[in-house]
Design a protein that fits this description.
By secondary structure, the protein is mainly beta. It contains no helices and twelve strands. Strands 1, 2, 3, 4, 5, 6, 7, 8, 9, 10, 11 and 12 form a twelve-stranded antiparallel beta sheet that branches.
Amino acid sequence: IEEFVKVSARKAQIAYRDGATYVGPVKKRARHGENGVLQTDECVYTGRWNEGDFEFGTLLIRNDEQEITLKGSFHEGCLNDAAGTEQGPNYTFEGAFVDGVKHGKGKMIFS
């Protein structure tokens, strides 16, 4: 952590050395609770945090070529053993994910 600014009793703004920022609820100086937002150069995580780990919500990944939105339960930064949604520039996949990879039943919709 480069800078930790307490906004209220349970909310803080955190700036990290790698340029990432977090605004949301904290517990013992760790991201913890509902509606926290972590933003990096390429990603935005919005949702529920548990002792610093992203647990459930939406991950938006952006780069020069595409923008992908992942929604669901996460473990170590990946959609994990859960139903989720991956939305790319010209498709949407709704279905099962294991370790961040589409796996099992689902449907792919092309636009």
